[in-house]
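Journal club prep, notes for RB
We'll compare a predicted complex against what the paper describes. Inputs for the iron/sulfur cluster case:
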Amino acid sequence: MADALAIQPDVRFLKRVLASGGGDLKKCYQCATCSVACELAPEESPFPRKQMMEAQWGLKAQLLCDPAIWLCHNCGKCTERCPRGARPGDVLGAVRREAIRHFAFPGWMGALVADPKWLPLLFLLPALIFAAVAFWAPKPVPAPPFEFGSVFPASVLEPLFFAISGFALLAFAVGVVRFARGIGETPSAGFGAALKDIAAHQSFKQCDDASMRLAHQLTMWGFAGLAMVGTATGIGTMAGVLRTPLALESPLKIFANLAAAASLAGVTLLLARRVGRPASTYFDWFFLAALSGVVFTGIAAELLRLAEARAMYGVYFVHLVLIFGLLLYAPYSKFAHLAYRTVAMARSRKFNARS
Ligand code: SF4
Ligand code: SF4
């Protein structure tokens, strides 16, 4: 007699998937229309039908270590075509949220960011830090030209943001290594192709969704540009070779303004798409709201500075609070999909190259 297959459903996991956007998964009757509709699903291992079945059974271990959940771009085509209204695209989104929480380092940070009840605390912490910085800084000059640095000194901000970024990178690294171990092998081969694909957003072409591709490209490259300028300015300021604010005609400032314009266009497109999606969750909004807030307050603070308005200090305070949240909570938010998707795509490339 063949050995019996032992299935160990995780009921708590199933309840969390149902609560965080996977509420219709029980309607699925395994017709596989979704796997046929998905343009990204490879022939040899189609998704999301199989993942729908695993989610119904509460098979947490199989799902969280399944690279396929990260190959999905949440385009919604499978959800549109599902004859039962089981919303497979949203179920995969809910499973990805669980994966980010499961692999989070430290785990309690993943739980804090995933739960809306902790949202005030998450942003109260940076608000108190920057209020303290402003309180102990020298008093701002009473007349224009006003400078951000007179209330929020670069000598405090730069080390603080470098420390936060270092912690976030460590958290990303641990999470990704945990996931790579979970999928069973270290996908060294295939990384180059995966990064090339992500840089050009090639997979979005398969989804035939030009506006989604453009929105993601503008946002990703805009923020990459801003991160580069921020890092270069921070290092230059600490080394004493740069002084802020940068002159409007300096190459670094011109590059920063172009990157800010790309980010603004990108997040506006993303917001427009998200507003039109009724199934959006707290997790979807957390990262997008922080991202948009950073862009809008950054541009507003700069315009107020150029207009020599003292209100720039208040807007800049909100900007700093949001940057702090965006960086520190990035490994536990939707931003983490960039890291996990890279590993999953590298694994997929390696697998495809073998078959
Ligand atoms: S999710 Fe919908 S389309 Fe996919 S297998 Fe289930 S019932 Fe069919
Ligand atoms: S949401 Fe789009 S990419 Fe994701 S499984 Fe459905 S059809 Fe495929």
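Talking point for the session: The domain at 11-103 is CATH 1.10.1060.10 (Fumarate Reductase Iron-sulfur Protein; Chain B, domain 2).
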